[in-house]
């Protein structure tokens, strides 16, 4: 990983940015007033959804490390580091876990050093690459991960930034095809199934800042898991995915969460 200083100089703080807005939703400090303004324009449940999504990542990572024996993790669209990060969760269960983070965002690159402090037994690396170029991701990740052994592929809150006609299904298909049997796909994505008007306003707020968001139905998200065996409880709102695995989570309060999440296993 190189170029954090030049990346920092390329960061535009005059316009809101999805990674920084998400950081604001989570109560982080790596955001600016312009990001907070956009965050406040979003539907009222957006901060709740961001927290529920983060906890979904916590639950799935701990489950896979504890119960499936997976020791390799590929996290695409990693975003600004927010502790505990995926590698901290995986390596707290299995110190020899190997984790590769992927993003193509100069904002994330500027913070990426925080992602690289893993255990001496394992490996933690950051790859600068575009999610729409899965073959390049696989090429670079292969320096750290052994794709002949199971890998947990995490696409957390990523696909609502990639439309179907922009290659979302080809991207996921290429990545899953490269995984060994026993690997899994961990995915969460925005939906308008529960609060269509609020989600529509959120999409419009992002569009006004030049960012395209895509809300998908349950059936549309199911397509990404074709050929995979879904872990129980299947595709559900992220807050409802295995809540018995919660550790250190606070009460979200009432109301729906407009993100689906699921884990699929490759036979």
In short:
It contains ten helices and eight strands. The protein has 267 residues and is α/β, with parallel strands linked by helices.
Give your account of this protein's structure:
- The chain is of the alpha/beta class.
- The chain has one domain: Vaccinia Virus protein VP39 (Rossmann fold).
- Helices cover 36% and strands 15% of the residues.
- The protein has 10 helices and 8 strands.
- The radius of gyration is 17 Å and the shape is globular.
The helix content, as a percent range, equals 25-40%
Question: Which CATH top level class fits?
Answer: Alpha Beta
Outline: globular
CATH architecture assignment name: 3-Layer(aba) Sandwich
The major sheet is characterized as: 8 strands, mixed
Structural class: alpha/beta
Number of helices: 10
Total beta strands: 8
Number of domains: 1
Note poorly predicted spans: 1-9
Task: Give the topology.
Blueprint: H1 4-10, H2 18-25, H3 33-41, H4 46-68, E1 72-76, H5 86-93, E2 98-103, H6 106-111, E3 123-128, H7 134-141, E4 152-156, H8 168-177, E5 184-190, H9 196-208, H10 218-222, E6 229-230, E7 236-237, E8 259-265
Parallel strand pairs: 1-2, 1-4, 2-3, 4-5
Antiparallel strand pairs: 5-8, 6-8, 7-8
Please give a handful of descriptors for the protein shown.
267 residues, globular, 8 strands, Rossmann fold, alpha/beta, 15% strand, disordered N terminus, eight-stranded mixed beta sheet
């Amino acid at each position: 990983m190189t170029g954090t200083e030049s990346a920092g100089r390329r960061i535009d703080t005059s316009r809101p940015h999805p990674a920084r807005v998400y950081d604001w939703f989570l109560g982080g400090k790596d955001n600016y007033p312009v990001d907070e303004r956009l965050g406040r324009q979003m539907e009222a449940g957006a901060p709740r959804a961001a927290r529920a999504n983060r906890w979904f990542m916590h639950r799935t990572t701990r489950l896979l490390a504890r119960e499936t024996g997976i020791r390799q993790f590929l996290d695409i669209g990693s975003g600004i580091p927010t502790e505990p990060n995926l590698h901290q969760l995986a390596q707290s269960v299995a110190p020899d876990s190997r984790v590769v983070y992927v993003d193509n965002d100069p904002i994330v690159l500027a913070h990426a050093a925080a992602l690289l402090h893993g255990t001496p037994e394992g490996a933690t690396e950051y790859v600068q690459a575009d999610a729409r170029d899965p073959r390049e991701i696989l090429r670079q990740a292969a320096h750290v991960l052994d794709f002949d052994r199971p890998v947990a592929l995490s696409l957390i809150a990523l696909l609502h930034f990639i439309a179907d006609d922009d290659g979302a299904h080809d991207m996921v298909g290429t990545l899953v095809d490269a995984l060994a049997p026993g690997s899994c796909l961990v995915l969460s994505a925005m939906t308008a199934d529960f609060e269509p008007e609020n989600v529509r306003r959120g999409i419009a707020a992002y569009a006004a800042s030049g960012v395209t968001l895509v809300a998908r139905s349950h059936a549309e998200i199911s397509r990404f898991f074709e050929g995979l065996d879904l872990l129980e409880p299947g595709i559900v709102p992220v807050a409802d995915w295995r809540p018995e695995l919660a550790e250190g989570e606070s009460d979200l309060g009432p109301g729906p969460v407009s993100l689906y999440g699921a884990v699929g296993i490759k036979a």
